[in-house]
Amino acid sequence: MSRVIASKSYRSKPVRSKTWFYLNVALAVGLMAAGVGMLFWLGGQSAARSSAANQGIVQPGQPAPDFSLPALNGETVRLSDLKGQVVLVNLWATWCPPCKAEMPTIDAFYRAHQEAGFTALMANVQEDWGTVRAFIEMNGFTFPVLLDSQGELMRRYGVRGLPTTFIVDRSGQVRHIQTGAITQADLETIINPLLSQ
Length: 197
Fold this sequence. Notes:
By secondary structure, this protein is an alpha/beta fold. The chain folds into two domains: 1-55; 68-195, Glutaredoxin (3-Layer(aba) Sandwich), CATH 3.40.30. The chain has helices at residues 2-54, 97-113, 129-139, 152-156, 184-195, and strands at residues 68-70, 76-78, 86-92, 118-125, 145-148, 164-168, 174-179.
């Protein structure tokens, strides 16, 4: 009798083990499915937020949003006052190596083409007047320098990294947006055709 009971308990162990095994597998699969579903849902939420945030970002073919900023020389510069010129709007900072690397190229292009109706507005982002002035004087740059001390222009144009350059045609339309340093070849390819229009 005791042998039969022992035999029965011996046989029931594998059945319980299999049951627990299948329950654990089902639970693991269910958790993985729930996790994947959660990831898809979070991705959709993030995309929706990103899409809503991107609606305010300036795009090529759109009118450039007007702005008014103080210049390093004490004047106030308004973008809309420059209609009829091709305008390069560049957002930069003194601590940004790619910004500093592109500035001699932009300044040389500005000097060579300002008589043809080209101007460069170099908008420093969130640095004080003294820091910007010292940097510009040390390098001998001649382009107009604006002070976006509160980062308003940066937010309005949807800029997320420096340097960022916007090329605006004579009618006030954004024709090109460049994130990262702009080169001499870029300037010639993008701006020269606009100057001849």
